Amino acid sequence: MPSSTDRQPVIVLVRPQLGENIGKAARAMLNFGLTEMRLVAPRDGWPNPSAGPAAAGADQVLAGATVFGTLAEAVADCANVYATTVRKRGVTKPVLTPEEAAREVHTAPGRSAFVFGPERSGLETDDVALARAIITVPINPEFGSLNLAQAVILCAYEWSKGADLQQPTQEELLPPAPQDELEGLIGHFEALLEPKDYFFPAARAEATRRTLRNLLTKPGWNHLEVRTLRGVLSALERTGSRRG
């Protein structure tokens, strides 16, 4: 059985131009559980001091990045190579969406690689020719301007949907405030609104109070939120008194 690491696609950046973009790609990768980055002839060499700050904590991806002289060397151990490009560039290959390619990666034998070209020009025809298939995204034909990190995150996200990643844990929610605290809040509102003739005319007062009560009980405030609202009302009350 292949290991979980073997099922992870390798992210290959071909002739990346800016360290910042390498860092942003690393950040995109790690958000969705990908850790193996390979660089083909980075323009400014490697390591690049500009990559770290842009990675925003994805240091393990940058630390493990390996450099190759050619794309063929970078994907030599990969049986399934996908070239990301907005067009076929004269090469006849199967064309897949990121979602379709990700499904293949999870089931195909052997290692897989998603290959991304330089920021300005994308992959050359010879680069695409090395791939088994092309990944392209339905995109606005009048504005096809994905940057490198955006392209990486599209593929990484689609792969992650089949990887059973844990959802980020949420902070424990506070329980709803007890009824007596809500009653205090409602009473506070009413006490401030009564002198302002909010419940006028008298014939509509009961319905208006009921609507106010429904509004204030509907959200399910916790006790901290109720205390905050009471503090707001008290502050407004003090301000009104000083002005008066």
UniProtKB/TrEMBL annotation:
Residues 10-157 form the tRNA/rRNA methyltransferase SpoU type domain. One of its GO terms (molecular function) is RNA binding. The gene is trmJ. Its main location: cytoplasm. Belongs to the class IV-like SAM-binding methyltransferase superfamily. RNA methyltransferase TrmH family. It comes from the Bacteria. Its EC number is 2.1.1.200. It catalyses: uridine(32) in tRNA + S-adenosyl-L-methionine = 2'-O-methyluridine(32) in tRNA + S-adenosyl-L-homocysteine + H(+); cytidine(32) in tRNA + S-adenosyl-L-methionine = 2'-O-methylcytidine(32) in tRNA + S-adenosyl-L-homocysteine + H(+). GO terms for cellular component: cytosol. Catalyzes the formation of 2'O-methylated cytidine (Cm32) or 2'O-methylated uridine (Um32) at position 32 in tRNA. SUPFAM superfamilies: alpha/beta knot. Homodimer. GO terms for biological process: tRNA nucleoside ribose methylation. It is found in: Cytoplasm. This is tRNA (cytidine/uridine-2'-O-)-methyltransferase TrmJ. InterPro entries: Alpha/beta_knot_MTases, RNA_MeTrfase_TrmJ/LasT, SpoU_MeTrfase, tRNA_m1G_MTases_N. Keywords: Cytoplasm, Methyltransferase, S-adenosyl-L-methionine, Transferase, tRNA processing. NCBIfam families: rRNA_methyl_1. It comes from Novosphingobium kunmingense.
